[in-house]
Amino acid sequence: MNVKELKSLIEFLIEKDIAEFELERGDLKMRIKRASAVAAAPAAPYAPVAAAFTTVPAPAAEPGRAAAPDVAARGAGEDVDLHILRSPIVGTFYESASPGAEPFVQVGDTVQKGQVLCIVEAMKLMNEIESDVAGSIVKRLVENAQPVEYGQPLFGIRLS
User: Fold this and answer.
1) At CA 156, angle to CA 153 and CA 160, rounded to 5?
2) Does one domain contain both 130 and 68?
3) What is the CATH number of the domain that holds 149?
4) Residues 26 and 78 in one domain
5) How many Å apart are CA 152 and CA 87, to the nearest integer?
């Protein structure tokens, strides 16, 4: 990564008010953390991508906003034993490889460990996000072309 790319990345993070950013590309590992002028809640501790699976429920929709289709249909006890696949990077979520193409996965599909579930675009790089577990897709927690934050839940997976 050259100085111009780094400067562009920092400007993007400031513009989007992103306090923490982590990038791993080959042998390059970078973590940027900036102080905020406004006192904010403490950031979540650093967690490697492999540890990004948890059993927490998905967030509810904000008032006045429609929930994602899979979130709106969930029942009270459905979150038990679900692994939540979280975004390992900040970027834009895409359900398919190109506009108009079939989604990589849909709710109800069975997936294998290592199977591509979606793409998160970050700085014009398309990052394939793979499943770390085998199971069934129960929920898709984001809309296509929606911006996502580091650690944001993407899918709920029921283990096989």
Assistant:
1) 145
2) yes
3) 2.40.50.100
4) no
5) 5
pLDDT band at 128 (very low <50, low <70, confident <90, very high): very high
Q: What's the pLDDT tens digit per position in 54-71?
A: 444 445 555 554 444 444
Domain range for 116 is 47-159
The number of residues in the chain equals 160
More confident residue, 79 or 39: 79
Separation CA 116–CA 118 (nearest Å): 6
Q: Which amino acid, 18?
A: I
Are 82 and 130 within one domain? yes
The answer to whether the beta carbons of residues 142 and 154 sit under 8 Å apart is yes
- Greater pLDDT, 108 or 47: 108
Query: Do 143 and 67 sit in the same domain of this protein?
Result: yes
Nearest CA among 95, 99, 100 for reference residue 68: 95
